[in-house]
Amino acid sequence: MTRILFAEHRRQMPLLLNHIHELRERYLLHRPVPTLAVVGACNAGKSTLINALLQEEISPVDILPATPCPLFFSYGETFSVYADGRFKHSQSGQALFSLLRQKNIRVNRVEITLPNPWLKKCTLIDTPGLDTANQNRLLEKIVPAADFILYLFHQRGPDEQDRYFLYRLKGSPFLHSFNRISFWVNSNCGHPDGSALVAARTAVGEIFGGEVPVNYLNTKNKESVENLRLFMEAELASLALKELEKLFKEEDKHIPRQLARTLSIKEDGLFLNMFWDIHERARTALETGQLSAILQQMRSESRERLAAYNQKVLPAPLPPAVRRETWQAVNFSLIKERLLNLLQRLLKDPALQSLPTREHLRELAKSMANDRFFITLWGPFSSGKSTFLNALMQEVLLPAQDKSTTSSLVRLNHGPEKLAVAHYPLQATLFLLDERDGEVFLCREELVTLNRWLNNPQFLKNLREIEVYTGGKFLRVNIAELSTLLAQTQNLFRPRTFPAGINSHIPAITRSIPAKRAIRAVTAVRLSFYHAREKTFRLADPGELAEFKHLTVTPEEAMLVDGIDIYHPAEMFKLATFIDTPGIDSVHTRYAKTVAGWLNKSDVHLVFFNGRHMLSPAHRDFLRHTAFPEKLRENCFCVINFADTLNRNEKERMAAFLRRELAPPAPLEIHFISALDALRDKHNFAFNQFLRRLEWFILTQRGEKVLLRRIEQIKELLTMEGYESSPTGRVLEKYCRELEEIRQILKQPGGYRLWKMPASLRKG
User: Where would one find coiled-coil regions in this protein (predicted)?
Assistant: First the structure.
């Protein structure tokens, strides 16, 4: 039945919309058509959407940001381009693209006219991505000029730039009606999993209040674009009907006087013409009211169709992982263990009589015991870091969603059994406020989580002390005092139209406040517990695996975790400990601080980029100012994920863009992969090629620069000891042979895959 209604709706709606448009052209001819602005982050698909609506390739589309200034598309009999009011000789969209790609272009706006029928209904504005300068321009010039705003999120959902802009947009005096903004998540990067849609609805709801509709859109899917087209035409038609109703309501006051005037006309022809004109306008006025009721019903059906499409867009089923061919990697942890064992045997051997040599060997053993090698994966959220690690394990153990998922550092180690160990600390600190450009925002998710903790009897049993950070210092408080302070803090962020003083209810809608006013607020809450604890999950057990995944994606659980250790028999984990990190551009700004605090402890860096959302402003700032790339460059790999969505030319341009943006003195090592393809297919060439390169690099860095140096130091000490006494040298020779055996392994990067571990290096 629903399909029949939708089919009927699709047949009737275009006719109704065209009729309303004809009425507008007839009675509102001298008024400008409505303006529709498409707004969103870089590479969210705004220009692609403009082209889909116009059904022609006119707005520049590129894998890199290609819209340097607002582009105004309006109807004209011929194609023409005006940059800041000056005519430019352009005959095609390609010429427009060339104009906008000029280096150091300084244009505030470009106006394009073309004979496209859809532009008779509205003027389209394609806007640049949301960096700080563009945000100011959008709020000052574009938003006031727009009758309707179509806000487009990337498939991964809202990030820090989106949230900041929407807060500013909400507080802007130019946005006079929230009913004239529509939110969409562009799912053009593959099958979405629904998490970004939920995250976008939550974020937008907190900012604008209530249930704000957010729908999926796929700019590459005809059905999806057609759904959006009908939705937008209905919204534009609704605006036109309101203008017509206002016009006819004003004219209705003059109809009695006009009729009286026609009665005085003696000439029959003129009388009939005047009377018929009044009759037609009165009939149209009545018809407009009826059309408005019908249109409202069709708008409701259109929203139902969008809701049905949201349900229809489901993730592609992931086939069971096929195990990679058996090959054996150098187990650095095992080699280190055997070297330590060798040193212990040496120190106990009576043949070693020199006290200085013994002392040097003890220092070496102590230093070696503390040696650890870390490979850290970091970058924006939803760039494929967790999926990459799942591909290494050839099974989905780490949760991976469109939205931000990883909330703490996850360490992946080699082990014979699949285990996850969650570490719960003695202290946990929740930061409740976030400041940016002199404005302070309330961290609502942290407040919700804190409220749930304090209402959980099991949680309170282990809670030893509560402290709040206010006035520049931590103060000890009890639960009642904390509730009062939190209520006062929450009331500072309530919109003026909402009542304050509601006991402990966390506001569903929040606003930003000036930093000076936030001095009275609680900045952070520190909780101390009686006992630090750990929880172990056997990941081979489906029930415990599900429990582990629930822990990692549920804020109430995840915010308590200080870190997670995973043990897995994947061969790559023999080479080093891999670290999965939270996304640095998430709306949760604490994630960026967590990553920044860890980077100096890491030995190798895999910096991830989303191939369809390249170098967001937050990511660029982090790379330039926080990550100290000049210190990391030698041990840094740039990994551009979702390479399956890029062609060869796009990859080359993206690599050049990245090198130019980061501007290093030496070329960056850039690799294009598809982590999801690698998870599905063990033979994925690009992924395996990158792993071989990474293995060689680890062998060089950890083998030659760390373990080989240790081996040479031990051999040098033993050789010196052997020269003092020939019998001693003969006794110590067996240790030298064992060290030489290990050295040969480490001196042949890549050859270890054909090498069988000798008995001297096997456990037990």
Answer: none
Using 50, 70 and 90 to split pLDDT, how confident is the model at 505? low
CB 603 within 8 A of CB 597: no
Burial label for 1, CB within 10 Å (0-12, 13-18, 19+), is: exposed
Nearest to 79 by CA among 49, 105, 99, 61: 99
| Token pair belonging to 195 | 């998490």
Segment 325-337, tens digit of pLDDT: 445 666 777 777 7
Tokens of 673: 């992969």
Residue type, 659: R
Q: Among the residues of 442-589, which ranges form H helices? A: 444-454, 457-461, 479-492, 542-553, 555-558
pLDDT at 32: 82
Residues 265 and 4: beta-carbon distance below 8 Å? no
Prediction pTM value: 0.72
Sign of CA dihedral 202, 207, 212, 216: negative
If we measure between CA atoms, which residue out of 495, 499, 522, 523 comes closest to residue 509?
495
Query: Which residue from 399, 523, 387, 504 is spatially nearest to 455, judged by alpha carbons?
Result: 504
Three-state SS at 428: strand
Q: What is the residue extent of each domain of the chain?
A: 1-31+238-314, 34-220, 428-497+507-529
- What's CA 403's distance to the chain center, in Å? 6
Q: What is the pLDDT of residues 56-76, one digit of tens each?
A: 888 777 666 667 788 889 888
Report residue 554: phi and psi, to 5°.
-100, 115
At a CB cut-off of 8 Å and minimum separation 6, what does 71 contact?
50, 59, 109, 110, 111, 112, 125, 126, 127
Based on DSSP, count helices (H) and strands (E) in the chain, helices before strands: 26, 25
Segment 367-400, tens digit of pLDDT? 777 777 889 998 887 888 899 999 999 898 988 7
* CA dist., res. 39 & res. 152, Å (int): 6
Task: Sort residue 190 into left (φ over 0), alpha (ψ -120 to 50) or beta.
Answer: left
Q: Which residues pair with 565 in a beta bridge?
A: 411, 421
- Distance (Å, rounded) from C-alpha 658 to C-alpha 379? 14
Token pair 């009721």: residue: 293
Contact (Cβ atoms closer than 8 angstroms) between residue 583 and residue 430: no
**Using H for helix, E for strand and C for coil, what is the string for 676-695?**
HHHHHCCCCHHHHHHHHHHH
Given a cut of 70, whether residue 424 has pLDDT beyond it is: yes
Instruction: Classify residue 517 as exposed, middle or buried by CB count within 10 Å of its CB (0-12, 13-18, 19+).
Output: exposed
Cβ neighbours, 10 Å, residue 397: 22
Longest dimension (CA), the chain: 140
Chain CA centroid to CA 445, Å: 17
The Cα 511–Cα 413 span in angstroms is 43
The bridge status of strand 80-83 relative to strand 86-88 is antiparallel
CATH of domain 34-220: 3.40.50.300
Of residues 662, 583, 617, 612, the one with CA closest to residue 129: 617
Residue type, 556: E
Confidence at residue 473, expressed as pLDDT on a 0 to 100 scale: 86
